[in-house]
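In this supplementary section we document a worked example of the pipeline. Step one takes a protein sequence of length 418 as its only input; no multiple sequence alignment statistics are reported here. Step two produces a three-dimensional model, which step three serialises into structure tokens for compact storage. The input and output of this example are shown verbatim.
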Amino acid sequence: MKKLFFLFLFSNITSSELILEITQGTEDPYRVAIVKFDGDMDIANNLDQIIKNNLARTGEFAIFDNKDLLSIPKDENEIVFNDFKILNIDYLIIGNVLSDKSNITAEYKVFDIKRGSKVRSSTVYGIPNKNRQLAHYISDGIYEEITGIKGVASTKVLYITEDDYYKLVVADADGKNEQTLLESTEPIISPAWSPDSKKVAYVSFETGMAKVFVQDIASGKRELVIQNSTQISSPSWSPDGKFLSLTMYQDGNAEIYILNLKNRNLTRLTKHYAIDTESTWSPKGAKIMFTSGRSGSPQLYEIDLRKSNATPKRITFEGNYNAKGSYLPNNEGIVFVHRADTSFQIALKYFDESFIRPLTTSQLDESPSISPNGNVIVYAIKDEGMGLLSGVTLSGAKFRLPATEGAVREPAWSGFLR
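The serialised model returned by step three reads:
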């Protein structure tokens, strides 16, 4: 009997959304008071909750509600800075919502309590019926002003869910607004964003073997990147979006190739009897890092694309398992899966240090993906046999994003969308 196979393309919202759980904050968070915005009450309440959740999720903020404050200024002229100094509050945010039937605009101001002065005044123009996105933009502005780092609340996360079907899902960074891009009875693995975050590449087994597809987020249009009878996996986009690095089995062994997306020409990058896989590009596209067993155990290697016939250079030496590496956006180091004794943990290694920094402590952490600001790593874990997503910031805060239905795995963080 022939095996039945079903494939569905979607642009609808799913019902198995992720639920945010903050599990650990930083030791010395910013103490911030957010006064509920003036204006349309329903919109203001909605913005207030989303902004507070976005900042709380980072683990870097202690948020004060209106009921905790000695005074509740609605305007800059009403601020009594001493009322906030007494509570040891670092920053105050006030704002208001301007709306008509189709457009919503939000104005907000950030005040440094210790300095007694306004440090930011911004106007954010919303998109009709997308108040959540408006709140994300405001959150990112507040986060950047206070920390000096660009915020990622307005970015997206890709991941795979597995229940009755395999689903490729995209959601806001807080797990809301889930949208299924693909549903299949066959496995889907290795999702990867294009640099402009308008397309995704992934591996689907719908043809009976591993093949790489590229799909447009907005239209849902998809294409098979290479038509042949070879297993292809682990796609990774070059920073300019013109190439994909892939793992291919053309001669029966896993090797790294580079595919020119314009003319479909292939260039072989590695040649070794060991398995070479899980390639990723450096931020400027000058190097490619990959996992290889050529030293006898999985380790990370790097090859310089600027050199002709360059020899791969081993870059991890601690322990007998280091894999699935990614570069920090500023190219200061790498994040990867590291085995410590019998546990698989997410680890960080700066290039100017001779040691690694374990970031997690679970038993089976995998598939780390770095936020575009380089400050947060989201990864997959197993808890009581169930797959879910978890996250850790470089400042030590931790959160989890379990789904209401099914197992979640293989997250991939988008770039900045604004």
